[in-house]
């Protein structure tokens, strides 16, 4: 969920800093998690509201049960969302809504109230387009996937195992498969579509998307824009804070540890906020990292293991190897870690936010995607952009060790570093004044203001006529 909340919250803050009155709506569970670790702040013109998600307080809301959250939210009566949007008219009217692509039921309520709605694709364009193609794949009889390895979703670029995980189902009537395909298709009925990316990074896929969603804004990387707006050069940190929202308290000791390391000698390891590992998988990764010969900084969340006691009784040789070469923490400021000169590679779950942050920082990746669009993102990292290696669907110690060594010191390592440095420069140009992301952000804000004036006038007329 943090992968969806983070870019939405950053966009809300950016719009607020640009002078719009913004209310950020989330669930009570998410609001509690953010508030517990100072991951979200408000200021004049920026407000946060929350609603129940319909699940009991002790529900884990983890990756394995992620769909239960969406199903519960979708099951809430439309009156709940309608009454909320009406309530939010105070102290000012709701004149425009930006809604997560996977919450189409909220968008539909807004539209019934006459509120213009734009969709935010919180993942990347490549994952969105693969999801968008699902109904066509079903119609063509391609899902369940046939025996052949290649698939023409993106001009034969993607292999079967590179498609989003819902495509791996054996029954085309699977609710998750149908739901994701339908949700992305509905974006064609919205006012526009937003992505947290830079235009040149995804130009080929964006051309496909704009053939069906012509009004598509690329406004990323949002954290870079937010940082520039919230704390310009020479100023102190602004009231909204440009750092990413936190699920857990950050461990700052890792920065001191990184300061003591040589340039580009550390592998940063983080599997995001939802990925879960079994104890055997954890140990395979641990052996592989220890055997690679490289130092590593590893984020192991308190809820990352499937077994409650899975972190206990780590073999003595691994504990010793970690003491000599590694640093293990519960959570970090990822943007800050990736920017540290000691970090030479990123072992990642290939979530879109992590992928964009690594590209912005110029850090090559070792990809171990867990689910959904991460499968597509990792393929783009390895074969489209050539800024890392993909080891999806396997995590044996030999593969982990060899892949880490290949990215850190292999014959392609210099090429990957040059490629990611080039992309990093392109992305920085996007967010500079006059760059494509700034231009698209200005266009989005102009559209919001123009439509809001029309909506406000219509609401005023309605009140007088009533």
Automatic annotation (TrEMBL):
EC number: 2.4.1.-
Keywords: Glycosyltransferase, Signal, Transferase
GO function terms (MF aspect): quercetin 3-O-glucosyltransferase activity; quercetin 7-O-glucosyltransferase activity
Pfam families assigned to the protein according to its UniProt record, in alphabetical order: UDPGT
Signal peptide: 1-16
Coiled coil residues, start to end: none
Superkingdom of source: Eukaryota
Enzyme class: transferase
Sequence similarity: Belongs to the UDP-glycosyltransferase family.
Stated name of the protein: Glycosyltransferase
Organism: Spirodela intermedia
């Amino acid at each position: 969920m943090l992968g969806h909340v983070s870019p939405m919250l950053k966009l809300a803050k950016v719009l607020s800093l640009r002078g719009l009155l913004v209310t950020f709506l989330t669930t009570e569970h998410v609001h509690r998690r953010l508030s517990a670790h100072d991951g979200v702040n408000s200021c004049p013109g920026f407000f946060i509201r929350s609603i129940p998600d319909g699940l009991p307080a002790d529900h884990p809301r983890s990756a394995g049960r992620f769909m239960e959250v969406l199903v519960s939210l979708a099951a809430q009566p439309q009156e709940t969302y309608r009454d909320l949007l009406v309530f939010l008219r105070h102290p000012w009217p709701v004149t425009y809504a930006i809604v997560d692509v996977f919450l189409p039921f909220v968008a539909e309520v807004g539209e019934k109230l006459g509120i213009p709605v734009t969709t935010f694709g919180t993942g990347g364009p490549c994952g969105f387009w693969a999801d968008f193609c699902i109904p066509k794949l079903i119609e063509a009889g391609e899902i369940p996937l046939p025996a052949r390895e290649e698939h023409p979703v993106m001009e034969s670029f993607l292999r079967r195992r590179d498609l989003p995980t819902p495509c791996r189902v054996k029954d085309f009537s699977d609710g998750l498969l149908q739901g994701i395909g339908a949700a992305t298709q509905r974006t064609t009925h919205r006012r526009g579509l937003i992505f947290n990316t830079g235009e040149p990074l995804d130009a080929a896929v964006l051309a496909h998307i704009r053939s069906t969603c012509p009004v598509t804004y690329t406004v990323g990387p949002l954290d870079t824009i937010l940082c520039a707006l919230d704390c310009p050069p020479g100023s102190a940190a602004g009231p909204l804070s440009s750092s990413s929202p936190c699920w857990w308290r950050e461990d700052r000791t890792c920065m001191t540890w990184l300061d003591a390391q040589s340039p580009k000698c550390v592998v940063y390891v983080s599997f995001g906020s939802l990925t879960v590992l079994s104890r055997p998988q954890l140990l395979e990764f641990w052996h592989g990292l220890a055997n690679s010969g490289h130092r590593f900084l590893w984020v192991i969340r308190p809820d990352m293991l499937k077994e409650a006691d899975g972190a206990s009784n780590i073999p003595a040789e691994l504990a010793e190897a970690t003491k000599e070469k590694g640093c293990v923490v519960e959570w970090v400021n990822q943007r800050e870690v990736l920017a540290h000169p000691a970090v030479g590679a990123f072992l990642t779950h290939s979530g879109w936010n992590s992928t964009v942050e690594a590209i912005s920082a110029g850090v090559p990746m070792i990809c171990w995607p867990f689910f959904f669009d991460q499968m597509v993102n990792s393929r783009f990292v390895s074969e489209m952009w050539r800024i890392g290696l993909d080891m999806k669907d396997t995590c044996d110690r030999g593969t982990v060790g060899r892949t880490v060594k290949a990215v850190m010191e292999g014959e392609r390592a210099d090429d990957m570093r040059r490629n990611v440095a080039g992309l990093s420069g392109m992305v920085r140009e996007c967010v500079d004044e006059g760059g494509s992301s700034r231009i698209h952000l200005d266009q989005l804000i102009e559209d919001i203001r123009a439509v809001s004036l029309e909506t406000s006038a219509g609401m005023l007329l309605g009140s007088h006529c009533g």
